[in-house]
Amino acid sequence: MAKRKSPSLQxxxxxxxxxxxxxxIFPFVWTFWGSFKVEADFFSKADWRNALWxxxxxxxxxxxxxxxxxxxxxxxxxxxxxxxxxxxxxxxTVAISLTIGTLGGYALARSGxxxxxxxxMVALIFRAMPxxxxxxxxxxxxxxxxxxxxxxTAIIVLVAINQPFTxxxxxxxxxxxxxxxxxxxxxxxxxxxxxxRYVIIPVMWPxxxxxxxxxxxxxxxxxxxxxxxxxxxxxxxxxxxxxxLGSTFEAGNVMFAVAAVVSVSAPLFLxxxxxxxxxxxxxxxxAVKG
Amino acid sequence: MNLLTKxxxxxxxxxxxxxxxxxxxxxxxxxxxxLGNEFAALQAVADRxxxxxxxxxxxxxxxxxxFGKLQxxxxxxxxxxxxxxxxxxxxxxxxxxxxLVRPLDDLVEQYGEGLNESQxxxxxxxxxxxxxxxNAQHLFYRADILEQVGVDIPSSYEEIIRAAQAIRDAxxxxxxxxxxxxxxxNLGEEFVNMYLGYGGSFFAAGSAEPAINNQTGIDALNSIKxxxxxxxxxxxxxxxxATQALWEAGEIALAIMWGSRGSSILDDEGSxxxxxSNTVLAGxxxxxxxxxxxxxxxxxxxAIAANASDEDAEASFRAMMHxxxxxxxxxxxxxxxxxxxxxxxxxxATGVSASASNGASPYPMLPYMGLLHDALGANLGDFLQGxxxxxxxxxxxxxxxxxxxxxxxxxx
Amino acid sequence: xxxxxxLGFIFAPLLAMILFxxxxxxSVVLQSFHIEHEQVVIQTETCGPFGCTYSTAIDTxxxxxxxxxxxxxxxxxxxNYLDRGxxxxxxxxxxxxxxxxxxxxxxxxxxxxxxxALAFTLFYTFTVTPLVLVLGFAIALGVNNLPKLLRxxxxxxxxxxxxxxxxxxxxxxxxxxxxxxxxxxxxxLLFDSPNLSLKASATLTWVTLMIYGVWNSxxxxxxxxxxxxxxxxxxxxxxxxIDGANSWKRIRxxxxxxxxxxxxxxxxxxxxxxxxxxxxxxxxxxxAHATSLSYIIYTDLRSQITRFNSAAATSVLTIIGVAVLLxxxxxxxxxxxNRKRV
Lengths: 290, 412, 342
Known about the structure:
The complex is a heterotrimer. Helix content of chain A is 77%, strand content 0%. Chain A is mainly α. In chain A, helix 6 crosses helix 12 (205-221) and helix 9 (151-176) packs antiparallel against helix 12. Residues 282-290 of chain A have low confidence and may be disordered. Chain B has helices at residues 3-20, 40-50, 67-76, 92-97, 105-111, 143-148, 157-169, 185-197, 215-228, 240-248, 262-266, 273-277, 310-323, 327-332, 350-357, 369-379, 381-384, 390-407, and strands at residues 30-36, 57-63, 84-88, 120-123, 126-142, 177-179, 254-258, 279-282, 296-304, 337-338, 361-362. The longest helix of chain B has 18 residues, at 3-20. By secondary structure, chain C is mainly α. In chain C, a hairpin with a 2-residue loop joins strand 2 (41-48) and strand 3. Chain C starts with a helix and ends with a helix. The chains are: A mainly alpha, B alpha/beta, C mainly alpha. At the A-C interface, helix 1, helix 6, helix 7, helix 8 and helix 9 of A face helix 1, helix 6, helix 7, helix 8 and helix 10 of C. Strand 4 (120-123) of chain B pairs antiparallel with strand 2 of chain C.
């Protein structure tokens, strides 16, 4: 498609993307650069250019760059424990969400009965419930049943809270996969599940990966659920980062938080690079032409 | 501090703590579960509680900034999820309202020989909590700048305003003053301080009826407004982090900040030696010609869960007694203004001590104070932005409080 | 699909949603009709490190007795919904009767916390949602036009605003827009006004919040559209091109209709998420100038003395608000659904 566009349009579209990229990336580059400075530079109230040259960093550490934030977060505050917990929570949440979500989303897309529509609607309205209200409601029974603070509890809650979104998104993607594909398998004598297994699964990856990306981000960035449902031993990264920020009474280690945020974005980079190939190659080759 | 000295310190700390493991706790059995806020001084206390862990004694500690949201639900469970909670004069109230903490008189009598009488928090004659740290908002000033404009150390808000005007007139700073005036809890706290400084009382005697929409309330609001005129126009977003950053950048010369921020302002990070060496902490100023400092005194302490077993309660109390024994001060004397026996005051503690000895009031531990505090914090911002008169702001706060108090069963 | 097969496929998600969302919602609705018991208060003396004061405390034994009789509290019907913290029935009526003009009435209405929050919430929702849709689609088209090799890094870069933890993301941005920060200072230079502060004025705070909202959510619309663009049938596009349709026509008549289900999906999610706007308000310390329904819920639950009944009522009102907001989109989906039904 790209080859046949007029050059001026091509140029306009590329400069638009570049402009957007600058806007999207700039705060992040700024944070990355600043994570090697001291707090007095990165959050300078005196002159923002201090963050560029590291005026106070030189005064306090003798060098324009310091890894003190990283050292403090990862070694002194044992951030790796939180990273490990986040890993467990995120991987489990995404795996469970997608497994049950693809089945449910497929059923909703192919059911044909009115109740499927109403189920989706109700799920969607459910989603409007502010998480903080839900989580506050969970606390008394969870403490009473002695399940509070454990990783599985938080995982199940995250899966459940994210299910309406997952179902909707996957259902929208499944609607885009032509019905004839699996219907013809049914005619060939497959059961519904076999049709799903052999015909739909091979072509559903772009939708699943995009949905998975959002489940991932939800679990990864979640604060309300993990901060209130996990004990200190099972603490995940975001509440841990929040704890670096200090409180009304006590000054925090803000640079630990900045360093932590930068370092946990590195695996994300890899992940997105990996997935985008799937998004690009999947459906065009499979479903539409198949 | 470079990386090398930091790692040396960490290694040193690990060595020191391993050599300190001993059986000083003298507890035989029981399990100790602790919930509390997360900051350095409490971490020090928690580490000492952890020393009591042994084969027969189970210790688990959860220090989190979310402790306030968890504590009521956690202690309501039977048996309670936590046997001991670190609390303060604000956070203890919801626990007492629900009857979730137990009287400690017998434990104090048996094991509390190291405590000062002043550490015991008595409600209705019964010891409900043990305090071990103190805190208050008070004055920070820049000695060099006050000297430059030839102003004495202010001891009242009226003098602070004069000093701020002098600094502005001298062209040194346009906005020389700052305090924690962020809409919400911080602004509510400023009003509470100022109103008590004017000698006001929040409720009609012996009831939960609010009584703030009066001349005292208007005076207090007007004083805050005059002060904010010397503060950066962003003042409604200023929390403790913002005011500390302003101070360390040398943008302000007079500030009302929490005493617990003193040690991190006076350390060698975040600011120039010119600013740090001229930073002085002083008692909270008075207002309106009264003697009493216009601030409230806070304590941090611990309480024991009512729904914990007697054995766990006893073990937890004794573990806390071990944690708060004078050994705590050997390594952590400068981490807080301790109320523990043997504490040596540091320069960072002068503001809190001066405010206390000048007769400042403790933050009121009324069952419904938190509701009024929130109502004030949410409704006074409109007045400070000049959107409505003081009477209207106070009336709004009273109305918001009444709604809340009715829902919680304090008013009809 | 037979009912039994359908149930088999959907069983797990259904169970999770019933247990962790539906049942809590029932409990929340119930609690929104209740208030707490009358508290039995006693006069007492409180002593501590700073001396003794006369004060009051709750007689927990007596209160416990009341609580055991009625664990949910006192039933008050719709009182929670109609009190000053929510729909403020009395206050609105009073304002209507006393205010001389619509302007004066609106001023009084905006002084009530619920309506003040609702005004910002609605304005935010209806500004940010369309902008997110348009920007996201434009970026998706732009990225789709790039050579394959450049797409990977571009996608990653475009997703960054969404990936970075909002908590710290807004902290860094908040500092950047400070009058002394990199964006704030350069805006002062750009507009040549040295006293410009994004934090001090209500209008600028609103603008900042909305720009942040679009910046933060555009990647969501982008990635969904981008995945959808990969499924546009190439044959149809090529056929259209042979018929002489230009780029704009191809987008208008082939791509957009093909992506319609995704547009509906993004609109639904965005309307809902924007209606629950909360994190930027806290992150940008914008409480003085802008509050939202979710923010009110948050303050009720976060305060020292938790107000669950009030938060429950606001939560139910939020759900009702979302339902009303979504109705037009839902009707459209309903028609689509019926059309596609076999």
